[in-house]
Structures are given as structure tokens and as C-alpha cells.
Amino acid sequence: xxxxxxxxxxxxxxxxxxxxxxxxxxxxxxxxxxxxxxxxxxxxxxxxxxxxxxxxxxxxxxxxxxxxxxxxxxxxxxxxxxxxxxxxxxxxxxxxxxxxxxxxxxxxxxxxxxxxxxxxxxxxxxxxxxxxxxxxxxxxxxxxxxxxxxxxxxxxxxxxxxxxxxxxxxxxxxxxxxxxxxxxxxxxxxxxxxxxxxxxxxxxxxxxxxxxxxxxxxxxxxxxxxxxxxxxxxxxxxxxxxxxxxxxxxxxxxxxxxxxxxxxxxxxxxxxxxxxxxxxxxxxxxxxxxxxxxxxxxxxxxxxxxxxxxxxxxxxxxxxxxxxxxxxxxxxxx
Length: 334
Ligand code: SF4
Prior knowledge:
The chain is α/β, with parallel strands linked by helices. The protein has helices at residues 49-56, 83-89, 101-104, 111-122, 128-141, 158-170, 188-205, 216-222, 240-245, 251-258, 298-302; strands at 5-17, 22-34, 38-42, 64-73, 76-77, 94-97, 176-180, 208-213, 225-230, 233-239, 307-310, 313-316. The strands form two sheets. The chain has an eight-stranded mixed β-sheet with strand order 6-7-8-3-9-10-12-11, sandwiched between helices. A four-stranded antiparallel β-sheet has the order 2-1-4-5, with helices on one face. Strand 1 (5-17) and strand 2 (22-34) form a beta hairpin. The structure holds iron/sulfur cluster (SF4). Iron/sulfur cluster is lined by residues 250-251, 287, 289-290, 293, 295-296, 300, 305, 317-319.
């Protein structure tokens, strides 16, 4: 693992197993996050983004199991740590902001006490006064008056609650912040404010970040590198320039860009990607996007595509050769 990489996920696979079925949620993904940079993980609901995030901090639900791969954080494989060791990492080194601010806070504890709880767990040597000072400076950092530390979650708006959650996540100055759709539950104007705040904090504190989103606009605004996830796999990855300015793209990425509303267009309907993601309990043997792909050929239904690499840009599609160049599309078979 390079010195400059803070998190290196290799070949990670995760299933959800019940008595009735096995869901293949994540299928052999690779992600490398550089220090002080933001990696955006994009894809529609059910692609496996949140499962990936929960696997990193080992907070999968009881039916979730990591079945393969490694998750190296600063050179240590998190999968090999004891639960006790992992607790030291959570909050102190890796923190997570969950999607819904309405359900993430304890309604019967003041926000100050909730921030203080995290600080005390990871810094037992601090005096009461020092903890209070940290609570106040953390609130100020996310743009909330320190005097509001005595207030309860119901006294805050949705955007302010999400700021409090981000304050709890940042209270111990973690090295890696995982933000799982942090603005999805907020209205558009508040979304913009919270995003600007996250970007500003990242720059000031030098925190590395995994930003999970389905919104390419967010990726363009705050990410350095991007992974596009579909049916538990990363189908395209690269720098933000590779994804937004490159000429070759995975058909799914093409579809995501095509479905962004264009204010100048007079089209009556949005350009949605037809069809649905395949059943994760019964994934097809070929490309998982084949049923929805306008370029699908026979081989796509038969064989999993291999990864093509061109510099920092990676694609997983039969349309491209191993160097990421588009193949001749002549006989309909490759
Ligand atoms: Fe489409 Fe085939 Fe590429 Fe899959 S492998 S995205 S079906 S062209």
C-alpha cells in the first residue's frame, strides 16, 4: 500500500444471508482512497454503496457477512482486528455520517452531551472543562452557536441536525470520514450549505473522505476520485476528470449522465435508464447491466467483462479492450 493511500479495499465481497436466500451485495470491489482526498462512490439505490461503507467500519447488520477481500486502513487490515481494537478505530480514526439526520440523534440527550460522549470515550484523560471546550469548538466549527449545546435535537431544523451529526463525527478529528448520502434527506438550499461546509472542513482539517451519493453534481463539486457502482461491482473508476471529461465511459455511467435533467432542453420526459437492477439473489452469469444496455452483445450475456486500464481510468465492459480503447464493433459478438 502506497504511503499516500489511507484506505485500500481489495477484492471485497459481502453477502446478506438469511434462511431463505443469499443476497450478493458487494462482489469483489477495489477502492483506494488517497490521504486528504475525497473518493465519491456513485450508483443507484441497491448498488452496494452503503454495504461497502458499513463493511469498512464493521457495522453490518447481523445477516451481513464479509466473505472475501481485505480492508487496509493505514496499513492495518480492519478485518483482522478484534472488536475491542475496532472500537478504538471507530470515531477516533474513522467516523461515519449516516443518511438520515432525523433518526441518527438521541432525542432525549442534548446535542452537547451527544458530542461530549464521543470525545470522552476516545479521550478519557480530558477534564470536564476541556471536554466542554471541545464540544463548543466543534459546534462552532460546523456553524452552530456554542450556546446551543444545551438544546435537544427537536429544537434544530433538518440542516442543523445534519450539522450536529457532522460535528459528532468530527469531534475526534478522524483521519477518514465516511459520508453516506449526507444531504439526501435535506432540501436543496440546505444541501448546498451542508456540502460547502463539508468541503471547507475537509480542506481545513485535512480529513480524507469517502462520499457516498447518487448525485453526480455532488461528485463534481467535492470529489477527487470516483467509483461508479452497479450491482455490487465498480464498473468504472478514475479521477473526476476521467469521469467528467474523458471520452470513453461504461454504458451505465453514460446512462447516469444522460438522465441528468437539462434546463435548456425542451424534452418532455427525462432520459431514464430503462429496466431495473438484476435480482441480487440471482445475479446473471455475464454482465449485470446487460438487460438494460443498448450496446449489449451475445458475449455480454455469457461472460463477465474484464477490467480495462488506461492510466488512472478503469472500465469493466466488453466494449473496451484491455487498454481502455473501444473495440471494433463489427460482428456483433465482441
Ligand atoms: Fe453493455 Fe456489454 Fe458493456 Fe455490459 S459488457 S455494459 S452489456 S456493452
